[in-house]
Amino acid sequence: MIFRTPAYYKKFKCIASDCSDNCCIGWEIDIDRISRARYERVSGSFGDRLREGMTESPDGSCSFCLSEGRRCVFLNKDNLCDIIIELGEDALCQICRDHPRYFEWFDDGTKEGGMGLCCEESARIILTNEEPFSVTETEIRDDEEESEGSGSGSFSDESGEWDGSETDPSALEEDREYQAFVTAFRDECLGILDRETSVKEDLVLILEKACKEQDAYDLKMAERYGEDAPEPALPAERMRSCVEDISLRNRILEGFMDLFSEAEPMEETWPEYLAQLKEGLSEEAPRSALEPSEGVATDLYLKNIAQYFIWRYTRKGVFQEEGFFLPYAVTPVFLTLLVARMFVDHEIRGGEATLPECINIVKAFSKEAEYDEELFDLILRESCRIIGENCR
C-alpha cells in the first residue's frame, strides 16, 4: 500500500507541556479495543488506577474519565501524560497515538493522511509552510483487512464473459476513471495555490474550474448513456462574484454559519463567538478579508489553509455516487473564506492578525467544524444549495 502525505507531515512532533492548549483537555478520548485489553492486564497500583480511569458507555464503547475542567484523569499537574510516564508512548491508545493526524483509505490501494488544524503545533507548521505543496509517498504494509467472499463477481472460465454478479468490469472501469478524474482535479487545485498570485485569484480559479469540470463530467456521462445532461449545479460565470462581491460573499458565509448553529458546540464560548462573527459581517472592516494584513503573512496562511482543506477533503468526492464531486471542491474554498473573515473580525474587535492569533483562530474553527462528523456532512450536503441560492 502507498501512503501519501504532505511533505511537512514528518515535521510534526508533539510539544507536550509547551503547548498553550492541550488535546487532553475538553475532549472525550475513546479507547480502542486492543488498548483497553492491554490496560486491563496492567498490574500494580497504576493498573488499578488505569481501570478506575476508564468508563464504559451503554453502547459498549470505552473512554477515559474526565476530571474537573474536563481534563483527562491521566493528565498530571505538569500537563504531562502519566500513561507515557509509567508505561511509555507505545502504551497510548490509538487516538492518542494518532492525534492530530488523520487518515483516509482509497480503492486504488492508496492511503492518504495529514495533520489537523485543531492542534497548535500542527497549525503552526501548516500556516507557515513556504515550500510549494508536495507529497511524500511511502510504501507501507496493508493495514486494512481484506474482506473474504466479497461477491464482486468474476469472469466465467469457459466463456470469458462476465457472470452477471454484483459488479461488472465496465462499472469498475468507470469507477476507476472517475477516481482518477477527481484525484487529478484535486492535485491541479493544490498547484493553483502555489502560483505567485493572490489567494483571491486562486480561489476564484478553483471555483470556476470546479463548476466547469463537474459540468463537463456530467455531459460526458450523459452522452455515454444517451441521456440529457443535468442543469449545472452552480453557475461558473458567477463564481468570481462569490469571492469578490463582499455583500454576496458575506451572505454565503452567513449561510454556512447557520449550519454551525445547529450543532452541539465543542467549547461553551463558540455560540457567542459565532453570533458575534455573524453580526460583524455588517460592520466596516479595516481591510478586505482577502487583502494581506500589513506586516503579517495572511495571504500565505490562507493559501496554506486552502491547500490543507483541499488535500484533506476534495478527493473524498470519489466516494460519491452519480459522480457529483462538486461539494467536495467548493466547500474547501468557502471554509477558507470563512477563516479569512474570522481573521478580519479579530481585527475589528481590536486584535492583530499575528501568527499566534491566527493559529488560535484556525484551531478553534477546526475543533468545531472538523471533529463533528454530522456537522461536516451537513456542510458538504448543503454547500451547493447555499452558494446557489445566493448567486443565481
Can you describe what's shown?
The protein has about 400 residues and is of the alpha+beta class. It folds into two domains: about 25-100, no CATH class; about 170-390, no CATH class. The chain contains 14 helices and nine strands. The protein has a four-stranded mixed beta sheet. α5 crosses α13. The longest helix is centred in the middle third of the chain and has 26 residues, at about 200-225. The chain starts with a strand and ends with a helix.
Gist of the model:
By secondary structure, the chain is of the alpha+beta class. The protein has 14 helices and 9 strands.
Which short descriptors sum up this protein?
392 residues, alpha+beta, 2 domains, four-stranded mixed β-sheet, three-stranded antiparallel β-sheet, 14 helices, 9 strands
Layout of secondary structure:
Blueprint (H helix, E strand, L loop, with lengths): L1 E5 L23 E2 L1 H9 L2 H9 L1 E3 L5 E3 L1 E2 L3 E2 L9 H6 L6 H5 L2 E5 L4 E6 L4 H8 L7 E5 L29 H24 L6 H26 L14 H6 L1 H15 L9 H11 L17 H16 L12 H23 L6 H16 L2 H19 L1
Parallel strand pairs: 1-8
Antiparallel strand pairs: 1-9, 2-4, 3-4, 5-6, 7-8
Helix pairs in contact: 5-13, 6-11, 7-12, 9-14, 11-12, 12-14
